[in-house]
Amino acid sequence: MSSRNEEMIYHAVPSFARFIIDKHLDEYIATEVRTSIEMKIPVWEKFAHVPIEVLIENSSEFFGQFIKDAAENGLKSNLERSIRHYKLDVLKNVGRHQITPEDFLLTHEARKKTLRHFLHLYTGDAQIMLRILDELDHIFLQFSVAATNAYINILNNIADEEQSIKRKLYSTSPGSYYIYDLENDIQILPSERLFEKLGYTKEDYDGNKHFFKQIMHPADLASSLNYIAALGNVVEGEVRFFEYRLKAAGGEYRWIRNYETVHKWSGTGLPSQMLGVAFDITQEHHYEEEIQLKDEALAEAQDLAHIGTFSWDLEKNKLTGFSHNLEKLGLRQGNTFEEVIGCIHDVDKPRVLQIFEHAIAGKTAYECEYRCTIDDRERIIWSKGRVVYVDDKPKFLKATVMDVTNQHQMVRKLQRSEELYKQAQVLNKIGNWSWKIGSDRVQWSDELFRIYGLEPQSELITLDRYCTFIHKDDIRQRKEMLDEQINNPGHREYYFRINAADGKEKIIYGQSEVLVDENGKGYKMIGTCQDVTAQKTLEKNLYENTIQLQKTNASLKIFSHISSHDLKEPLRKISLFGDRLRMLNNDKLDDQSRTILQTIIQSSLRLQQMIDQIVSVSRINSEEKFELTDLNCVLNDVLGELSTHIISKNAKINADQLPKLVVNGNQLRQLFMNLIGNALKFSKTDPSPVISITVDKPSLKEINGTGLENMSSYIRIRIKDNGIGFQDIYAEKIFAIFQRLHDKAAYPGNGIGLAVSREIVNHHGGIIHAQGFPGEGSIFTIILPEKTA
Prior knowledge:
Structural class: alpha+beta
Distance between the termini: 71 Å
Oligomer: single chain
Strand order of the largest sheet: 2-1-5-4-3
């Protein structure tokens, strides 16, 4: 190798390269392509869809040129040409932006590895091999250095260009750029251009950490703090904006809008610095206010869309001038008097004609209300106007018309609402009252009279009369509460008992409020009273039932203790002594006796297992340890425990990403174990078992009718298999304890797994159901509340 490294003149490599060209060129190219793919060079992975033969054919020229240049000691030219093509972005089959330094280094390593592959075919001389390897190291070092330098130069050029663009944008943009340090609450790159536009000098704001807040409009401070607090959940690349007012040096306020994105992140993953640009949008706000005023005027006109104006030429007998919406009121430009009158309801027509004639004669003002048909609907129209005289003769009638149908309907609705309000009071046994403080008279609604056992409005209610109904044990407290509320106005809620006029004792739930004048002194008390006797009786019954339930639960605990200890002891002895009897007398027993004895032992053992499982079911609802649990970890634990079974069945498990929920992890593990274990147990040998676990969120429509609360959010998990399935008529039966659909000799088990599964899901406030498809498989669907905290 030449000492002049920059010339890249080599002594051993050219002969080696010529050997490859003469004897192994095609094999060399194919080997380098395969080596590049095996090394997973990023740029090659972009062509993973291309057949290997096509890749070899397309790479032959490039790889072949390298080996030819190596044979002729022309690798320097090869390197310069490659770098030039890379800089000019004219590489064959790949763009410059697709190549990274990793691609360069791995490509050179792949080529070196390929060349080493052919070295033993060329020579067995160790000295020659070492010389070639040394020269190859030097060659690819030069290639790597040159490629890296070219890559860095391109990056520097790009950075310089971007910096130049940023400077130009900064200088020409109408906005003011800044960097805001969230952690220290200060602009480390101040909004200099903005402050200058507001009339401030650098001395005003430089070094003043609180300057920005000092000139912000007081009404915007709270919203600005809320905006800053919300930046804690901003994501990478997100742009947020905020509008506020700043006080200029002259005293006026200017509207500002900031656009911000994260500039730097803290070590905890929260934004630490925000890059932003501020714009003066005061003029925009002025325009918006003007538009808003016009919109409000337009909205008002639209609200009054049933109002129109017209001018009636009395000499020509035609409507001449009218508003744009007059046609909606049954009038059209050019209408004659006869045409307008013809649309009026026959009953109202004589009265309208009389009012019109009196107005023309100057006897009365023109104002009337009539019914007419508009677009096949009967409407009520109100009209008012005046007659314009010219030369003492009536010339025009200028009037306004308005569709008052809705107002008439509203009056009827109000009357109906009052009726419904009274009905609602009756249905809910709620009455209302009012009392002018200091007076003796109390106003009661009709229903309040009924609650107190009186006919509605059958007598005048005074404060003393009201007190006569209150239970003797509650009267003192009720009076004290009235006095306290008058002295300390506010809302109150209370219960008290009454002895109604019909002799019934009732429990009343009351609410009251004191109305105060401008001096804060109470002048009136209003309130409602509801007969809650039935509810309170129900509450009492529920309380008593709860006590009874607690006693029952205590009994169940005793039963659980007896089941898990006292009942198991005789069974253990039956099993123990039966086994001992079999060992001591095995040679004395005939086959039938041995079979009977073995059956006794196995039955006692099975009964022990059933007792254990019954106890485990009874203890599910006592497990109260719920915490945020990653269901993926639970599933992985289950699959790990079932791994031997999965491998022996050649089963395939496909699972979605499961959520994190607040659950009892041990119980959810048992749930997955039961359902996946069943899917493996009741599988077919052909095809191999495939178990799919999917997750989604059911819609509100799907939740309705399931018995679940439709105000909560739920997660739905489906476990589907392609096993032997079952008839769908047994979809509920299989969840019963000790229920089996198949022969236990063919499918061992105790028939309690699905019963336990349902108890677990119920304990978590969810539901579980199954669908069976005989010979095709089954689907178990679990719906759980989406509790994450």
